[in-house]
Amino acid sequence: MKLDLNDYYPSSNLARLYRTRKRKGDDDRARISAAVTLTACEHARLSKSNDEWLNPTLLGAAFDAGDVDKAQELANQIAVEGPSTWKLETTLADCRTSAQLHEDPRRGELLAIIVQLEVLLPAKAVTATP
Fold first, then answer.
1. pLDDT tens profile 77-123
2. Where are the alpha helices (DSSP H) in 47-67?
3. Alpha carbon distance 25, 88 (integer Å)
4. Which of 71, 58, 50, 78 is nearest to 9 (CA)?
5. N or C: which end of the chain has fewer CB atoms below 10 A?
6. How far apart are CA 117 and CA 52, in angstroms?
7. For the whole model, what pTM was predicted?
8. How far apart, in Å, are the Cα atoms of 87 and each of 47, 96, 107, 121?
C-alpha cells in the first residue's frame, strides 16, 4: 500500500483485517487504510480504469471506512447500473463483515444499505442478514 498509494488493491482488505485483529493502534490503522483505499479507487475511477473489480472494491472501501453517505451513493448507483456490473453478490459478504465491525448507529445504517442491495439480487443469491 505504501509503495503506490494509487493502487487500491493492496489496501482493499486491510482496514477490515485491522478492525478484526483489534490490537493497540489498529483502529487508527484501519481508518487510514480505508481512506487510502477509497482515495485510490476514486483516482482510478477518474482515470477511467477498466478494472472489473474497481466498483466492488470501492463499495467495500466505503463500508470499511464507515462512510454511510458514500455507501448509500454507491447503492443508488448500483440500483441504476445493475448488480452484475458491480459483482454485488461476491462483495456483500465483505460489506456485511465490515458493517459488523463498526459501532452503532453507523453499523445499523450500513446494515440497512446492505438490505437495500440484497433486494437487487436474484432470490437465490440473497443471504440472511444477521
1. 999 988 887 889 889 999 999 999 999 999 999 999 999 999 999 87
2. 54-65
3. 31
4. 58
5. C
6. 19
7. 0.86
8. 21, 15, 22, 10
